[in-house]
Amino acid sequence: MPQSPPSAVAKSGAGLTPNPGLTPMMLNHAAWVTPDAAETTDFYTRIMGMEIASTVLDDSVPSTGEKIPYFHIFFRMADGSTLAFFEAPGVPAPAKSSHPAYDVFNHIALEAKDRAEVLRWYEWLTSQGVDVIGPTDHDGLILSIYFHDPAGVRLEITTPLDKQWNRYTEKGYAHLKLWEDAKAKAKVEGRDVPVALLELIKDVRKRHD
Ligand SMILES: [Fe+2]
């Protein structure tokens, strides 16, 4: 059962009641707005090798009742999980990000079988005129390449190099505590928080190396 560190529990205002054994099973779908459903379909079916899983046409959003005519389309991956898009003509283009960090950090990663398959993806995508960054080895944890779909969604194809890559729970809580403590200390001392965090990052990396 997932644990919550005391600070996260306090921040969420959820009190100290433990999670009752509810953990999501898998990715059902992640969804974005696209300006062109046909172009998006070509990309996810032909380039990404996915199938159309489901579609919806509606004049209002079922969850909120908002009147927006849209076309909703889902594309299926090998495990049944999907990526989904909405085309809503007449909706203006999104506002630009306030900082490049948002354009780099916001992304979704799709898993490839192994290192060789990541390299095959690299060859295939570049042969189709897709700009690809990588492959990048993340400290022996995972190997990834990065690119964008036609709607500007940042995608990653990745494979675990370390079979335990998503099992470092204790280390994760330790890192979270270091991070929160360093931020709190910098604030109390009236120091610049990003500068203080840079020192923490250097220190943690030194210990890791
Ligand atoms: Fe990632």
Summarize the entry for a quick read.
By secondary structure, the chain is an alpha/beta fold. It contains six helices and eight strands.
Q: Overall mean pLDDT score?
A: 93
Question: Which parts are unreliable, with pLDDT below 50 for 5 consecutive residues or more?
Answer: 6-10
Q: What is the CA-atom radius of gyration, in angstroms? A: 21 Å
Q: How many strand units?
A: 8
Keywords, separated by commas or semicolons:
globular; binds fe (ii) ion; alpha/beta; 209 residues; 2,3-Dihydroxybiphenyl 1,2-Dioxygenase, domain 1; 3 domains; four-stranded mixed beta sheet; single chain
What does this structure look like?
- The chain folds into three domains: 1-93, Roll (2,3-Dihydroxybiphenyl 1,2-Dioxygenase, domain 1), CATH 3.10.180.10; 97-167, 2,3-Dihydroxybiphenyl 1,2-Dioxygenase, domain 1; 168-209.
- α5 (169-188) runs antiparallel to α6 (193-208).
- The longest helix has 20 residues, at 169-188.
- The protein is of the alpha/beta class and 209 residues long.
- The protein is 35% helix and 24% strand.
- It has helices at residues 6-12, 37-47, 100-105, 115-127, 169-188, 193-208; strands spanning 29-33, 51-58, 70-76, 82-87, 108-111, 133-138, 142-148, 154-160.
- Fe (ii) ion is lined by residues 107, 109, 156.
